Amino acid sequence: MEPTLNPESGFFRIRIDFSYDGTNFAGWAKQPDQVTIQSTMESAIATFTRETITLTAAGRTDAGVHAAQQVAHFDLPNLDRDGNPWAIENFAYKLNRILTEDIRIISAVPAPNNFHARFSAISRHYIYKIADGLQTIPPLARFDTTSWYRELDLDRLQAASNYLIGKHDFATFCKPDAGATTIRTLAKFNWERGSDGFLRADLISDGFCYSMVRNMVGAVACVAEGRFEPEWIKTILNDKTRISDSLVFPARGLTLQSIAYQ
Amino acid sequence: MEPTLNPESGFFRIRIDFSYDGTNFAGWAKQPDQVTIQSTMESAIATFTRETITLTAAGRTDAGVHAAQQVAHFDLPNLDRDGNPWAIENFAYKLNRILTEDIRIISAVPAPNNFHARFSAISRHYIYKIADGLQTIPPLARFDTTSWYRELDLDRLQAASNYLIGKHDFATFCKPDAGATTIRTLAKFNWERGSDGFLRADLISDGFCYSMVRNMVGAVACVAEGRFEPEWIKTILNDKTRISDSLVFPARGLTLQSIAYQ
Fold first, then answer.
1. For residue A180, which phi and psi values (nearest 5 degrees)?
2. Which residues neighbour B112 within 8 Å (Cβ) at sequence distance 6 or greater?
3. Of A34, B31, B96, B130, which is most buried, counting CB atoms within 10 Å of its CB?
4. Which of A107, A120, A124 is nearest to A205 (CA)?
5. Distance from the B240 Cα atom to the nearest Cα atom in chain A, whole angstroms
6. B104·A139 Cβ contact <8 A
7. Beta carbons of A209 and A177 less than 8 angstroms apart
8. Is-contact A126 A256, C-beta < 8 A?
9. Average pLDDT in the B100-115 region?
10. What pLDDT shows up at residue B134?
11. Burial of B51 (0-12, 13-18, 19+ CB in 10 A)
């Protein structure tokens, strides 16, 4: 059930910004018998508010995917169970005391009118990090960097990625999700090689379908390895035939960097 | 037993540079019934060389302390058990295949004459990272940053630390270690606040006694909090009376950054 666009009467909305290391979670969304970020955070919020709440996130991240800045909202009754106003200014601090360090609350504030964490978002920014060739990943950087044993050519990565920028039907790169559109506007897909020697992709779009980033990274990596020419990306994009799951790059290199609102 | 300064006849020496996340290790040095970095690496080297070897490191790091670049050496017979020369150029790759990702071999090369990982080192560089005040630590940075709930004033940190720079008897800051000198030359003890908002100390010395960095950080933090004036550091340094263990800052903020050789 999709939460209502605005809080029910007698309730108000809180916007919560947070980050997480996705390594030990089965992704964002609640699932039976799984430790997920949503279920962990909902329990923590229930612990100190004594209210059962539902979190709605800007985007559902997969198992193993990280977030530098994820955004969610939840609704609370105007007064607490003792009839007192909430001390929202203490929410972030209280939550951080309850949660383990792999989830950190950046802020919790009353949401503006008509704010909806998912539907008010105008763009999402993801990054993907790869240590290619024979580079070793520094142990403290291992949680958000994927290792790829072949060398990836930066110019070819970018040439291939350029075919994906713009408004397209990205069905080729999306796991089927009944009823969801696969038409998206990819505003940015930029590669660079950092001073650490590792490759980093920055992707910004109005939205990403399920597995879309990791599929696109896998496809342009094929080009960067020399298996295909950059134009192959244009061909498969236009085909709209879902490419092989074997081209999905691992979750651990993927981080939701930020969400932009109007 | 201290290893010989040079390899025995019929043996040659290998220098190995590596990094580790110390979170899940009981420090560098071998100890009964403990998983240490030394024991883990010695087992891994024995697995593919079929030789029992002993590693000598530039410095023994404590439980929970990390290394961006640690250096060690070990000696091997000139030929392997099949009578063949060693393919040293493959050692780093082979070791990285055996080890888990919290230890990564940067390089393994034949050591120059008279090279001794510990005694040839002319200086050690450590860093210490602190998120002070109410700052939250991004989950992916949590492994090598210490949280300190009070705000620490950068100018007072530096003023206090300046009293420690130079050649001194650092007995005040060293856990007793029979027979070991506590006279050291601290060439650098510099604090900065990074763009992430966190404090970082860089310390360079010809050597550090056991717990010396974490004790000095704890002491200058007392000054930065306003509990003492910077001159207090000069007083306790000259007293040479070991300060309280309660002033030892946690291991997880400490990283051995590099070792310099002649």
1. -90, 140
2. none
3. B130
4. A124
5. 36
6. yes
7. yes
8. yes
9. 95
10. 85
11. middle
| Contact status, residue A224 vs residue A153, Cβ threshold 8 Å | yes
Check whether B168 has a pLDDT greater than 80. Answer: yes
Q: Please tell me which of the candidates B101, B137, B142 has its beta carbon nearest to residue A139.
A: B101
- CB atoms under 10 Å from CB of A7, counted, come to 20
Average pLDDT over chain A reads 93
- Within chain A, strands assigned E span 11-20, 56-57, 66-77, 103-110, 121-132, 146-148, 166-169, 183-193, 199-205, 254-261
Q: Compute the average pLDDT of residues B153-182.
A: 93
Q: Give whole-number Cα distances, A236 to A163, A205, A228, B144, B201, in Å.
A: 10, 20, 11, 43, 51
For residue B18, what are the β-bridge partners? B70, B105
Say how far residue A221 (Cα) sits from the centre of its chain.
20
- Give the CATH number of domain A122-261; options: 3.40.50.720, 3.30.70.660, 3.40.50.2300, 3.40.50.620: 3.30.70.660
CATH of B123-261 among 3.40.605.10, 3.30.70.660, 3.30.565.10, 3.60.110.10: 3.30.70.660
- CATH 3.30.70.660 residue ranges in chain A? 122-261
Pick from A93, A102, A138: CB nearest B139: A102
Give the 3-state secondary structure of residue A186.
Answer: strand
Question: Higher pLDDT residue, A213 or B247?
Answer: A213
**A258 backbone dihedrals φ, ψ, rounded to 5°:** -170, 165
- How far apart are the C-alpha atoms of B14 and B34, rounded to whole Å? 26
A114: its two tokens: 């008509």
CB atoms within 10 A of CB B50: 10
Task: Spell out the SS3 assignment of A25-51.
Answer: CCCCCCCCCCCCHHHHHHHHHHHHHCC
CATH 3.30.70.660 range(s) for chain B read 123-261
Please check whether the domain covering A11-110 is classified as CATH 3.30.70.580.
Answer: yes
What positions of B carry a catalytic annotation? Answer: 62
Query: Which of B96, B139, B255 has its CB closest to that of A20?
Result: B139
Q: Which two tokens stand for residue A193?
A: 């090689």
Joined together, the tokens standing for residue B216 give: 């000095």
Residue B152 pLDDT exceeds 90? yes
Candidate from A197-201, B42-46, B131-135 with smallest mean pLDDT: B131-135
Q: State the residue for tokens 């800052």.
A: B249
CATH 3.30.70.580 location in chain A = 11-110
Could you tell me if B256 lies within 8 Å of chain A, comparing CB atoms? no
Predicted local distance difference test score (pLDDT) of residue A1:
43
Terminal Cα distance for chain A, rounded: 25
Query: SS3 for B17?
Result: strand
Ranges of chain A whose pLDDT falls below 70: 1-4
CB count in 10 Å sphere of residue A47: 13
Quick one: pLDDT band at residue B70, thresholds 50, 70, 90? very high
pLDDT for position B1: 43
